[in-house]
Amino acid sequence: MKLKKSPLAPTKFPTLPSVKGVNIGTSVSNSKYKRRQDILTITFNNPASVAGVFTLSQMPAAPVQFCKKNIVNGYANALVVNAGIANSFTGKKGIENNRLIASYFSKLINSRQKDVYICSTGVIGEQLPVAKIKKALKSSFLGRKKDFKSAAKAIMTTDTFPKASGKKIKIGDEEISIVGISKGSGMIAPNMATMLSFIFTDANIPSVFLKAILKKIAVTTFNAITVDGDTSTNDMVAVFATGKAKNSKIYNVLDPKLQEFEKALHRLSLNLAKQIVVDGEGAKKFITINVIGAKSNVMARNIAFSIGNSPLFKTAIAGEDPNWGRIVMAIGKTEENIVAGKIKVKIGNYLVVDKNKVADDYNEKDLKEYMKWDSINLEINLGIGNASYTAYTCDFTHDYISINAEYN
Question: Which of 55, 158, 194, 390 is catalytic?
Answer without folding.
Answer: 194
